[in-house]
C-alpha cells in the first residue's frame, strides 16, 4: 500500500523507495507499505487494530546497507537492493529532502552514524522509533477526497464559465455571405473571433489551427467523407458550438501506428507514447488535439468510431453533447475519450457505445450530470486519479456502469444512479470516496476492489448481489449504507474478516434482527453468515437467529475476531435506513423494515 500502480511503474531504474513490512497479530499475511509514514498514519485509523490486530514486528528498509543518493526529485537510489532491519531498532531521518511520489518520507538506517551523516547532507532530524510514531504526516487518504468534493465542483464550475466565454467572441465571418465553405472561413477569420454557420448541411472535413469559435445558427450539419475525423482542432481555446456532426471515419486507428500525432514531434517513443499513438490516434466526429481550454457544446455526433476525442487538451469542456454510437458497440470505441486531458464532461448523453466515457491518464477529470444508456461500459477510467464522478445516471450498460481500474488513487464517486446493469459500480485503486450512490436492479450493485477507501451512505437495493468484496486487505470503511431487497446483501472472496462498522456506525440491513435502542441493533449482523444472509428472504429465520445458542455465538463473535464465522460482520447494524431520501428513489422503500418489526 501507499503508492499508485502508475507511480510504481514510472519509477526510474535504481530508485529504492523506503518500505515497511508489518506482521500483525490477527492477519495471516505480511502487509507492505511504500513509505514508513504510510504505516505510521494507517495504524492510527479507526478500526485498524480491530481489522488487523496489533503490529508484532515491523521491518523497514535499511539504507545503512547500501550507497544512498537522492535524485533531483528527492527519490532515494541505491547501488543494490537494501536489506531489512527491525523498525524498533532503526534510526529515521525525518524532514529531509527525501521524497516518494506521494510526498515527504522518513529515511531509515540501522546505524545512527549513517542517519546523522544523511541528515547533515540532506537536512532533517534523526528520530528513534517511538519518536517517529508520535509524528504526524499529511497523507491524501479517502477522508481528504471526501472533504474536497465541493471544492472540485466549484473548480469545475469556474472552468466551465471560462470555456463558455468562447461563445461570446465577436462575429468575423458568416459562411455563405463572406465565404463559400466553412474551411475557407477558418483560414480567413482573425484569431479569437466567431464564424457563424447558417442552417444547412455542409459536406466538409475541417481543420482548425488557430483559436476560433464555430457557431451553428439553426439546424446545421457538418458531414465528413467517412475517411477521417470530421472536425480536428489543434489550437488552444477553440470552440465548436451548436452543430450536428456525422460521417466520421470507419476505422478505429485511421492515422496508423506510424503516423505523427499533433504535439508528439519531440517524443522519445517509449511504451506510453506508443500506446498513445496507437490508442488516441483514431478517427472521431470531433478530434481535439493539444488544444487546451477548448469548448465543445450543444453538439450532436453520429459516430462510426469515437464521438469526441480529447487528447492533451487540459481544462477543456464538453457539455450538452449527444453521441449516437454504432448499433454494434464492437464497431466503435468511446462516446467521449479523454487522453491526458483533465477537463469537464457534463450534461452529455451517450447511447450504445463501447465505452460511453473513457479516460486515460486524465488526473483530475470531472464527469458529472451525464445520462449514459445502453453502452458496454458507462464510465471507464484507466490510470486516472483525483477524478470526480458525480450525479451521473447510467442505465442498461451491458458490462459495468462505472469501472475504475489500473491502480489509481483518490477518486470521488458520488451521487450517481446506476440501474439495470450487469455490474453497477467497480472502483479500483486506493484512497477513494464512494458515497450517496443509488445502485438498483443490477446483477452486482457494488464490487469493492479499492483499498483504504470510504464507502458510505449508498443505497444498494434490488440487486442479485448487493456488494461483492474482492479486495484482500480489510482496510476500507463501510458505514451508513442501506442494503434492501437484494437476493444476497453481500458476498466476499476468500480472505480475512472485514468489519463494516466504523466508530460505532454500522449499516442498515433489511432483515437484521435483535433488540434496538431506536438507532442500532444489539446483535451483530453478518451478510455472509448462512443464517443471517437469509433473514430477509425466508420465513422463520428470524426466530432461528434469536435462538439462545446462536445468540450466545453471535455475542462471542461480536467480541472475538477469530471466532466470527462470516468474512463480513457489522457490529452495530442500524434500526432504520440511513438514507431515506435516496431510498425513496427506488422501488423498495416499503421493504425497509425498522428493527422493532424485523423480529
UniProtKB/TrEMBL annotation:
- What Pfam family does this protein match (any one)? NosD
Q: What is the scientific name of the source organism?
A: Natronococcus amylolyticus DSM 10524
Which keywords, in A-to-Z order, does the entry hold?
Repeat
Q: Which PANTHER family match?
A: F-BOX ONLY PROTEIN, F-BOX ONLY PROTEIN 10
What is the protein name given in its UniProt record? NosL family protein
| Database matches in SMART domains | PbH1 (SM00710)
User: Boundaries of each Periplasmic copper-binding protein NosD beta helix domain copy?
Assistant: 340-511
Query: Which segments carry the region annotation Disordered?
Result: 246-271
Q: Which domain of life is it from?
A: Archaea
Entry-linked InterPro entries: N2O_reductase_NosL (IPR008719), NosD_dom (IPR007742), PbH1 (IPR006626), Pectin_lyas_fold (IPR012334), Pectin_lyase_fold/virulence (IPR011050), SCF-Subunits/Alg-Epimerases (IPR051550)
Amino acid at each position: 500500500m501507499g503508492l499508485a500502480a502508475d507511480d510504481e511503474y514510472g519509477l526510474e531504474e535504481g530508485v529504492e523507495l523506503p518500505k515497511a513490512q508489518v506482521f500483525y497479530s490477527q492477519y495471516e499475511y505480511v502487509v507492505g507499505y511504500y513509505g514508513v509514514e504510510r504505516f505510521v498514519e494507517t495504524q492510527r485509523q479507526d478500526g485498524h487494530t480491530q481489522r488487523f490486530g496489533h503490529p508484532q514486528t515491523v521491518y523497514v528498509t535499511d539504507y545503512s546497507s547500501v550507497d544512498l543518493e537522492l535524485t533531483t526529485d528527492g527519490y532515494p537510489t541505491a547501488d543494490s537492493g537494501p536489506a531489512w532491519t527491525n523498525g524498533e531498532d532503526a534510526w529515521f531521518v525525518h524532514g529531509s529532502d527525501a521524497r516518494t511520489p506521494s510526498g515527504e518520507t522518513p529515511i531509515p538506517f540501522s546505524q545512527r552514524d549513517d542517519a546523522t551523516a544523511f541528515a547533515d547532507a540532506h537536512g532533517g532530524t534523526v528520530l528513534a522509533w517511538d519518536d517517529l510514531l508520535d509524528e504526524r504526516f499529511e497523507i491524501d487518504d479517502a477522508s481528504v477526497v471526501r472533504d474536497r468534493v465541493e471544492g472540485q465542483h466549484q473548480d469545475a464550475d469556474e472552468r466551465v464559465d471560462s470555456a463558455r466565454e468562447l461563445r461570446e467572441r465577436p462575429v468575423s465571418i458568416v459562411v455563405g455571405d463572406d465565404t463559400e465553405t466553412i474551411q475557407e472561413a477558418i483560414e480567413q477569420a482573425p484569431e479569437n473571433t466567431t464564424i457563424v454557420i447558417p442552417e444547412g448541411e455542409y459536406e466538409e472535413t475541417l481543420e482548425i489551427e488557430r483559436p476560433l469559435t464555430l457557431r451553428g445558427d439553426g439546424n446545421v450539419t457538418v458531414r465528413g467523407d467517412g475517411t477521417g475525423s470530421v472536425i480536428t482542432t489543434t489550437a488552444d481555446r477553440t470552440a465548436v458550438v451548436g452543430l450536428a456532426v456525422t460521417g466520421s471515419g470507419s476505422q478505429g486507428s485511421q492515422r496508423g501506428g506510424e503516423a505523427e500525432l499533433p504535439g508528439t514531434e519531440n517524443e522519445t517513443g517509449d511504451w506510453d507514447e506508443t500506446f498513445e499513438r496507437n490508442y488516441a490516434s483514431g478517427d472521431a466526429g470531433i478530434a481535439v488535439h493539444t488544444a487546451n481550454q477548448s469548448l465543445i457544446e450543444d453538439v450532436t455526433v453520429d459516430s462510426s468510431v469515437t464521438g469526441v476525442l480529447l487528447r492533451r487538451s487540459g481544462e477543456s469542456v464538453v457539455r450538452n453533447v449527444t453521441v449516437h454510437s454504432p448499433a454494434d458497440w464492437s464497431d466503435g470505441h468511446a462516446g467521449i475519450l479523454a487522453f491526458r486531458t483533465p477537463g469537464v464532461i457534463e450534461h452529455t448523453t451517450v447511447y450504445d457505445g463501447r465505452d460511453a466515457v473513457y479516460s486515460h491518464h486524465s488526473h483530475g477529470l470531472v464527469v458529472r450530470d451525464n445520462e449514459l444508456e445502453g453502452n458496454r461500459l458507462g464510465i471507464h477510467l484507466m490510470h486516472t486519479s483525483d477524478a470526480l464522478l458525480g450525479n451521473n445516471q447510467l442505465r442498461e450498460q451491458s458490462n459495468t456502469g462505472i469501472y475504475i481500474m489500473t491502480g489509481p488513487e483518490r477518486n470521488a464517486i458520488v451521487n450517481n444512479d446506476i440501474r439495470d446493469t450487469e455490474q453497477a459500480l467497480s472502483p479500483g485503486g486506493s484512497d477513494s470516496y464512494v458515497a450517496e450512490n443509488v445502485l438498483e436492479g443490477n446483477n452486482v450493485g457494488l464490487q469493492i476492489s479499492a483499498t483504504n477507501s470510504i464507502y458510505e451512505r449508498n443505497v444498494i437495493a434490488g440487486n442479485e448481489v448487493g456488494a461483492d468484496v474482492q479486495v484482500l486487505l480489510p482496510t476500507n470503511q463501510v458505514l451508513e449504507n442501506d442494503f434492501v431487497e437484494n437476493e444476497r446483501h453481500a458476498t466476499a472472496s476468500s480472505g480475512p474478516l472485514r468489519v463494516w462498522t466504523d466508530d460505532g456506525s454500522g449499516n442498515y440491513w433489511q432483515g437484521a434482527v435483535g433488540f434496538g435502542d431506536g438507532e442500532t441493533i444489539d446483535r451483530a449482523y453478518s451478510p455472509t453468515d448462512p443464517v443471517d444472509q437469509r433473514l430477509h428472504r425466508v420465513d422463520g429465520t428470524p426466530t432461528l437467529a434469536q435462538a439462545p445458542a446462536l445468540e450466545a455465538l453471535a455475542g462471542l463473535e461480536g467480541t472475538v475476531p477469530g471466532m466470527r464465522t462470516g468474512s463480513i460482520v457489522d457490529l452495530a447494524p442500524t434500526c432504520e435506513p440511513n438514507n431515506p431520501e435516496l431510498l425513496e428513489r427506488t422501488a423498495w422503500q416499503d421493504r425497509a423494515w425498522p428493527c422493532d418489526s424485523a423480529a
